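Dear Dr. V.,

Thank you for agreeing to look over these. As mentioned in my earlier message, I'm a first-year student in the group and I'm still getting used to reading structure tokens, so any feedback on how I've presented them would be very welcome. I ran two proteins. I've put each sequence directly above its structure. The first is here:
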Amino acid sequence: MTPRIGFFERYLTIWVALCIVVGIALGQYFPALMHTLGGMEIARVNVPVGILIWIMIVPMLMKIDFSATHGVRQHWKGIGVTLFINWAVKPFSMAFLAWVFVRHVFADHLPAEQLDSYIAGLILLAAAPCTAMVFVWSQLTRGDPYFTLSQVALNDGIMLLAFAPIVALLLGISSITIPWETLLVSVLLYIVIPLVLAQLWRGRLMRTGTATFERVAQRIGPFSIMALLLTLVLLFAFQGRAILEQPLVIALLAVPILIQVVFNAGLAYLLNRKLGVAHCVAGPSCLIGASNFFELAVATAISLFGLHSGAALATVVGVLIEVPVMLLVVQVVNASRQWYESA
């Protein structure tokens, strides 16, 4: 059967663009309402956004099968390449690109008071590997499903321990100070607790049968995207004035994101070819290495820096360009299959 990408996922860029328009319009015409929603906070966590983020993340984390990590030995080369890209290359290359473009190349065209925040958002975007959409990318490249499952499960396990230290390290290198306890609370709220709840829910559903689990997962999947879009509407409602005053901000922030996706995907693809990894593993390997867990990045940016921050806006730019860029990478991977296998 020909792999297909879901309706919501295929047109995610269009939905995000509409969220920009709707959000800015709400911010301009209903400022009192937006101010009220923005003030609904508990311990610096915006309650409406917090609820939406959990609705967004839990269905994705429910798909993770940690028992699949037994497949690591079978695909150790491909998994090694992806782990190297995800944890040793991508966060650091993004920090470097953010420093080059935000701090220097585009500095005169961006609000000076938001430069640190933009860099922080880009770092958060690259610090966590994608969890959900990679299953779609793997399907579209006819990737080995067992490799993809084991890779995602392993990455999520590592993320529990590595996300906070890497973010703290790179923000420190970039001279951006955040309280460690704030970062750890964000990890607890948006990784640990949702992951535990999602796995408990998964276990309960699996006990009633795989068919039941698949049916429920398919039914709740669209709620995840819808929650993401509603979160973006709120974010752009608060960011509307800044965007109208600086319309080039989104395009400028997209540049380092685009470069790092192409760089990481290409590096992972070439390393897999050099190591003699099968194409059905190399395809999803480079796609997992290039894509980001943008839902977590948005949640953490809002928690650490606030809805009005440049960090939150920078992570949303990642959402805006993720699907079209990754679909382009999928096309390159599929078109180069003969060249890849000629090695």
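The second protein is here, in the same arrangement:
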Amino acid sequence: MIDVTVENFETEVLAASAHVPVLVDFWAPWCGPCKSLGPVLEKLETEYAGRFKLVKIDSDRQQQLAGMFGVRSIPTCMLLMNGQPVDGFTGALPESQLRSFLDKHLPSVAELVANAEEEQALQALAEGDTDTALEKLQHAVMADPANDDARFDYVKLLLQLDRAGDARTAFAPVLAKAAGSRKFGALKAWLDALDFAATGAYDADTEAGFAARIAANKRDFDTRYARARWLMAGQRWTDALDELLEILMRDKAWNDEAARKTCVAVLEIIEPPKPKVAEGQIPPEDPVVASYRRRLSSVVLS
């Protein structure tokens, strides 16, 4: 529990709420209900072990802050996330109601564990340690099966490591989400490309065969699209994008915009995790992804 004033409000409340929910307790020394509520809140902060941060504001001494939140009676509590109030209550609620209020908004223990494991995995990936990254992502998915970001990263890494069978198993629980999710739709497009390449009669002369047919007819979109999917299966991403853009430059609407949709999927797959930057700054875009996004926009909008 931290006593907050005008001087430390921005640091202890606004900035802190970008990383953990902050519960602000407006109280006063003369307030009887405040004296009963305060210890219960402090007990819950300890029990919830980092799932939220408790701060106290003396509404008599910090009238500017109390006015900012429109406090008219005490005790009043406001929960802030990412610098914004998301909920609140007035009065000394019993402990059971306080737990219900917190549980409605706070991440579960499973979510916190999964987020921590995923963060460690991404750090391991940045250091080139794929074994540790894979282990951490697997733990994240097991801890919180509903964590779509962790599952996307896990399935993606399995595919990058040519473990398509394991990837399909990990992807199966969210397959139904693919139609409405850009991330999962991209993974499905990759898996479909692998199926396409595995069932086609492709050999060492495949690339030359594609090139010959395209040279004979530059509007042979079926062959161009087949080549793009074959390249996707081989993780030759920029080559696949180049072929898809060739289709788009000639016929944007071909095959229900298959080329554009597949371009979007490939860009989703190859975009690396955003690096951490100071608060308020925008992380830089990957130059390859940014270049192909500009080319895609230029072709689609032309």
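From my reading of the second output: The CA atoms of residues 119 and 286 lie 19 Å apart. The beta strands are 2-3, 22-27, 53-58, 76-81, 84-90. Does that match how you would interpret it?

Kind regards,
E.
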